[in-house]
Design a protein that fits this description.
Chain A: GO terms for molecular function: enzyme regulator activity. The complex is a heterodimer of chains A (about 80) and B (about 90). Chain A has about 80 residues and is mainly α. In chain A, about 75% of the residues lie in helices and about 0% in strands. Chain B is built from 4 helices and no strands. Chain B has helices spanning about 1-25, 30-55, 60-85, 85-90. Classes of the chains: A mainly alpha (about 80), B mainly alpha (about 90).
Amino acid sequence: MELADKAVGFLLSAISLSIFSYYTFWVIILPFVEKDHFVHGYFLPQEYAILIPVFAGVVLLSFLCVFVGCVMIKSNKKKKSA
Amino acid sequence: MKHILKIMALLVAVAGIWISLLETSVVPRSYTWLLPVYLVVSLGCYGLLMVGVGLMLFPTCPQEASLLQKVALVIMFISDQFCAQIPAFSG
């Protein structure tokens, strides 16, 4: 039981650290590297550095709104039937 | 109310720093435009990291668990004995 918890926690921290380091490298270090360096092949074009977080934020917000709306509709239905 | 004011003051301070950075051009302009998005992403990563670390360090107390189980057994035993002695419950 504790091993599963520890594994999930370790996975979460690893994911967060990798996302943070990738994003930091992408946004801060990459503009200083010359255009011909091979490392540019591992990173998407810089516009995606803004598009992807904004898109993820929009998806999260819309999911939250849909969830809140569903809960409100359900509670309204219960009030009407009860 | 105090918490909301604190958070709003923090947001205003960050916005002020960002605008001053934009105006004085200490850092290259493209960096300053990317700063808010970068801060939001790093905040999300930090939250995820705290959740993961908390999960890893969550204390399960195996000795207390076994002790509690023994206590529960003793309580069940005593209540059975008690119920058996009262004629209303046993009869």
